[in-house]
Amino acid sequence: DSGVTQTPKHLITATGQRVTLRCSPRSGDLSVYWYQQSLDQGLQFLIQYYNGEERAKGNILERFSAQQFPDLHSELNLSSLELGDSALYLCASSVGVSLTHTQYFGPGTRLTVL
Amino acid sequence: GQQLNQSPQSMFIQEGEDVSMNCTSSSIFNTWLWYKQDPGEGPVLLIALYKAGELTSNGRLTAQFGITRKDSFLNISASIPSDVGIYFCAGLEVFGKGTRLHILP
Prior knowledge:
The structure holds two protein chains of two kinds.
Chain A: E1 5-7, E2 10-13, E3 19-24, E4 31-38, E5 42-50, E6 53-57, E7 64-68, E8 74-78, E9 87-94, E10 104-105, E11 109-113
Parallel strand pairs in A: 2-11
Antiparallel strand pairs in A: 1-3, 3-8, 4-5, 4-9, 5-6, 7-8, 9-10, 9-11
Chain B: E1 5-7, E2 10-14, E3 19-24, E4 32-37, E5 44-49, E6 55-58, E7 61-65, E8 71-76, E9 85-91, E10 94-95, E11 99-104
Parallel strand pairs in B: 2-11
Antiparallel strand pairs in B: 1-3, 3-8, 4-5, 4-9, 6-7, 7-8, 9-10, 9-11
């Protein structure tokens, strides 16, 4: 158990819908990272937040947005969903802002868009 | 953007065999990380390499940071059933597509 929790574990929805994924980092970690994992694209970094502020951005679509709250949990919002958004969405946390700090991954949210 | 190429994509080996997999890039990386992912779980960091030429071990696992900073390899000695999974190399937030390890009974 990494100490990172993600809810829900599974989510099934329809095209055009909007969903919110939640991540709680390990106790004491200030950074949260979101990744998308699919069979064809592999693991793609989406975005990093540190202590409530956006710190790094990867291949995140404009239809996707995230935020980190004062209690340090983070939410990833996915809107106007398309079939190709079906993937495992992973959250990771680390103690510091630098990407060199060890990241601890949660079990992920499996999103299926029908 | 930066890409990491992992090979092989999958491996089928007998229990007890040694395993070698590698990761290459056309770009220079200053950090190489190796993760393992079990089904239904997120990746878990196995070894982190921060210096060109560095050779680091973690139990039966050994990884090296290539001197050109464009490659890394991971070796697993005397494989056991729990080694089954997907192994990813990463340069911080950039991940390879993984090597899937299968162990034949």
